[in-house]
Amino acid sequence: MTHSTDVRSPGRSGPRAEEENTRSRVLGAVLEHGPVSAADLGEMLELTPAAVRRHLDALEQQHYIEVTMVRRRTGGAGRPARRYVVAPEGHAKLGDDYLEIATDALESIRRVAGPEAVRAFVQERVDRLEAAYRPRVEAAGDEVAERLPVLVQLLSEDGFAASTNEVAVGQGERRTIVSAQLCQGHCPVRELAARYPQFCELETDLIARLLGTDVRRLSTQAAGAHVCTTHVPLARPAPRPAAGAAPPTPADQTTDHTSKEGRHD
């Protein structure tokens, strides 16, 4: 289910419609890339600083977005930077459809059949996603780095506003990308997941299975974060030896073929 970021009023045309269309693009960029700075928004949308500020101020007044303070990636003791994210009210306006009905339905399931029935219901939903996603993810290749962009695209198509941030070690030519953070700027079931953590738990398991590696959920919108973030190691873990298998053979210590006579102490 894809969720629209359109904030335009119907039946309008001309400069006003163009203005609202641009505002919708700004909101969509905040949804997909937040926390994001005004400068980055202007660059990615090719807008002047004044235009970006005008649209951000309007969206903030409408309670679609809000400001959050984040530490700069460069570290140090500098002041936190201002970044924009979609506000809780904005998430509600952007697609928490039928929330009351869904909440009532899950509560009825829990009351009549117990917590395990709720988990089974969520698992069935996750299984449908896995069946839909797996062919495209596996077609991308066997490596995690090959599969991750496809999964990001699939999640975005279903309204999760997904993106990735690379995590590297070292600097310059020695810089090596070792992992990535899978970010989801919008959660269509955020309010449900806040009441029923099975949504987040089973979604994390789904990501791990599709990528074929262990992942770790760092934050969720259901728990109050602005973005759902999952740590994804890009190198697959080494396979564990089978039960009862002999330990690895140590390096052969007789490979030095230099004779005692040929050595010089």
From TrEMBL:
Keywords for the protein's UniProt record, in alphabetical order: Transcription, Transcription regulation
Compositionally biased tracts (Basic and acidic residues): 254-265
Domain HTH deoR-type: 19-79
Ranges annotated as biased composition (Low complexity): 235-246
Keyword Transcription: yes
InterPro entries: ArsR-like_HTH, Carb_Metab_HTH_regulators, DeoR_HTH, HTH_MarR-typ, WH-like_DNA-bd_sf, WH_DNA-bd_sf
Molecular functions (GO terms): DNA-binding transcription factor activity
Residue span of region Disordered: 1-23, 235-265
PANTHER family named in the record: HTH-TYPE TRANSCRIPTIONAL REGULATOR SRLR-RELATED (PTHR30363), TRANSCRIPTIONAL REGULATORY PROTEIN-RELATED (PTHR30363:SF28)
Name the UniProt record assigns to this protein: ArsR family transcriptional regulator
Organism: Kocuria flava
Origin organism lineage: Bacteria, Bacillati, Actinomycetota, Actinomycetes, Micrococcales
